[in-house]
Amino acid sequence: MPVDDQLEVLRARMAAIPSRVGASAQADVHEQDVLGVPGGLGRLLPAGGLVKGSVVVCSGNSLVNGLLAAVTGSGKSAAVIGCHQLGLLAAAEMGADLSRLAHIPQPGQDRLAVLAVLLDGLDLVVLDLAGAAVAPSRSRALMARVRSHRSVLVVTGGDWAGSDLRLESRPAAYSGLGRGRGRLQSVHLDVRVSGKGLQPRTGRLVLAGSGPDQTSWTLETPTIERRTSTG
Fold first, then answer.
1. Domains in the chain, number
2. Distance (Å, rounded) from C-alpha 139 to C-alpha 148?
3. pLDDT tens-digit readout, 14-25
4. Beta-bridge mates of residue 28
5. How far is CA 8 from CA 102, 109, 128, 138, 192, in A?
6. Residue 135 resides in a domain
7. CA 2, CA 211: separation in Å to the nearest integer?
8. pLDDT of residue 6
9. Which of 162, 168, 74 is nearest to 123 (CA)?
10. Is 156 helix (H, G, I), strand (E, B) or coil?
11. 19 Cβ contact partners less than 8 Å away, ≥ 6 residues apart
């Protein structure tokens, strides 16, 4: 499909997604400026969530699914570009509202053009770079678009020069599984948060089922890294 035709299809899909304007007109300043994140993750973030108009580099499928669940579960809209390994079932089990999530697994040769369209009307857009580099001229133009539309861009599968925040995670432990048997009860993730003007901080998040289509995110041992002096 030609790129122009594909973008028109995307615009039509966006029009079918519920409005990003919430039902409550009494949102306070914090709610207007920040997108919510799952559970204890907010305690590691300087603003308690993802600041609108920011670019976040994120690693780890569980973190991405959790962000999608928190955003769409609160009535806002999101999209995912690429991310062939995206687990829609896992996101739904964490509380995601899939009717508010657009997934474009095959964005074509120019996924940045697709990104530019989706930033116009969605609260959160996840872009999988699939290891590709982004030219500085295009990244600057897209960052300006993110800020002007007050969206949040989450980048996976690569780096993004000038990003505002970095979320890095790795599995640390599992509970409930024995040797070849048992049922997974919880996943422990070691998470590190860093960014512009931010003293890096780390913590362990414990993800556990807390009810039908709900996952609790409990933060353990949060730590602010000590700055090292030179000279």
1. 1
2. 14
3. 555 544 433 332
4. none
5. 14, 16, 21, 21, 39
6. yes
7. 44
8. 58
9. 74
10. strand
11. 77
Q: Are strands 198-211 and 182-195 parallel, antiparallel or unpaired?
A: antiparallel
CA 116 to each of CA 12, 161, 162, 222: distance values in angstroms, whole numbers, following the listed order = 15, 17, 17, 36
- The pLDDT tens digits for 59-97 are 999 999 999 999 999 999 999 999 877 788 889 989 999
17 closest CA partner among 125, 143, 108: 125
CA distance 115 to 112: 5
Q: What is the CA radius of gyration of the chain?
A: 18
pLDDT, residue 22, reads 37
Are residues 84 and 31 in contact, defined by beta-carbon separation less than 8 angstroms?
Answer: no
Q: What are phi and psi of 16, to 5 degrees?
A: -85, -15
d(CA 159, CA 117): 21
Token pair in block for residue 118: 């989706």
Can you give the CATH number for the domain in which 107 is found? 3.40.50.300
The strand pair at 152-156 and 165-177 is best described as unpaired
The residue type at 27 = A
pLDDT of residue 3: 52
pLDDT at position 19 is 44
Strands (E), 123-213: 124-128, 152-156, 165-177, 182-195, 198-211
What's the domain range around 149?
A: 3-13+29-168
In a domain, 184, yes or no: no
- Amino acid, single-letter form, for residue 143: M
| Positions of the chain with pLDDT under 70 | 1-32, 176-184, 227-231
